[in-house]
C-alpha cells in the first residue's frame, strides 16, 4: 500500500464538507421509476475487487479516495462488519450504483457512500435510489440518520439530500489529495 500512496499526484483540492442529519423518517418515499429493469440487492461477503470497482466507478468523478487507500485487511474488516450494510443497484442487469450504511454508536446510521455510475446519472433514478437508502437506514432502528457531502460531490447532491429531509448540522473545510491514474490503477488491479 505504501507504494500506492507514493504514486499520488500530490495535487490537492479544497472542499467544504457538510454534515446533515434526519431525526425522523420521511412520511413517504419516491416510487420506483417505471420503464427500466431495476434490482436493488443487499450484498453479503462482497469481494474486495468488486467493492473497489463500485467505489471507483461511482466516486471517480467526485474524487473519492478514502476506501481506495485502505489496506486489504482494513477493507475486509469493514466489509465483514455487522455494522456495515451495502446495497448495489442494477439497471438492465448491470451494476449502476451502490450505497453503504454504517451503524454508529449512539444509535446513528450513517449513509457513508451513495451514488450512481456515470451511465445511470441523469436517468431519473436518483430520488428513488436515495429514498431506498434512507428507508434501509431507518429499517435498522436508529435514533437518527446522517450523511456527509462535500463541494467535490455531484453539484445536485446537497440539494437532493435536503429535499429528501436531511438538514445541515455543521460544515468544515478540508483538502482532498487526488490519486494519480497510476495510483488508482494499482489499487484496482490488486
TrEMBL record:
Q: Which InterPro entries match?
A: Acyl_CoA_acyltransferase, GNAT_dom
Q: Per the UniProt record, which residue ranges are transmembrane?
A: none
Q: Which PROSITE patterns match?
A: GNAT
Q: Which Pfam families match?
A: Acetyltransf_1
Residue intervals of the N-acetyltransferase domain? 41-190
Protein name, please? Answer: GNAT family N-acetyltransferase
Organism of origin: Chelativorans salis
